[in-house]
Specification:
This protein has 207 residues and is an alpha+beta fold. Helix content is 49%, strand content 22%. The protein has a five-stranded antiparallel sheet with strand order 1-2-3-4-5, covered by helices on one side. A hairpin with a 4-residue loop joins strand 1 and strand 2. The longest helix has 40 residues. It is flat.
């Protein structure tokens, strides 16, 4: 357990603005051999609304950004992401909470780019990275189509055009991104692990 004082900068739904949350108490525990998880109880400095935040602290010194557990968020992922992907995803979520729709879709695009780089470090563009992932079997045709749509919205947000990014665009972009992340980093590894366990059991039974 720890009981240290620091302020957390986060978006307050009640104040509808980014504000400081005063740390009241932090509880930490070992969640994995190389990680510990912190849960922090705090209150908004402006309106005194309570909030609970969580973050993961790696024993190498790397610390993830705070994520709000209470009031609840549908954007909290219950599985681990590579650091390069996690940072961009959390930034996209913060933009959505702050209602900065253009920045949100841009960060969704950056998350896609991070996924491509994580798989193929030499990736130069999101388009080429997605094509490479598709050809190597890392994503399906459907996921490729979804990713390309997110890439299209990202391009609108990243360049000065007459088209405007709306709330629905940002919300749906994050909806699709969450599914893509879950399939790539949670469901697929889980399925591969199940297949490997089944193969091992069958091999043992044949002996």
């Amino acid at each position: 357990m720890t009981n240290k004082k620091e302020d957390i900068i986060y978006y307050c739904d009640n104040c509808e603005d980014k504000t400081k949350f005063i740390l009241l108490y932090t509880y930490s525990f070992d969640s994995l051999e190389e990680h510990k998880t912190e849960h922090t109880f705090s209150k908004c400095k402006s309106c005194s609304r309570p909030a609970i935040f969580t973050r993961i602290v790696n024993r190498t010194g790397f610390t993830t950004d705070y994520f709000q557990l209470y009031p609840g968020s549908d954007r909290l992922l219950r599985f681990d992401l590579p650091r390069i992907v996690d940072e961009s995803y959390n930034e996209a979520v913060r933009c959505e909470r702050a209602r900065i729709w253009t920045a949100c879709v841009v960060m969704v695009g950056r998350t896609l780019e991070a996924i491509c780089i994580e798989h193929f470090p030499q990736t130069k563009t999101i388009h080429k990275g997605l094509q490479e992932m598709f050809h190597k079997g890392h994503i399906s045709q459907e996921l490729l189509d979804w990713s390309n749509e997110l890439r299209f919205l990202r391009n609108i947000g990243a360049h000065a055009t007459k088209e405007k990014i709306k709330k629905a665009d940002a919300n749906e972009s994050l909806d699709f991104l969450q599914v893509i992340l879950e399939i790539i980093y949670h469901l697929r590894p889980k399925f591969e692990g199940r297949k490997n366990n089944k193969s091992t059991k069958n091999s043992s039974n044949e002996k």
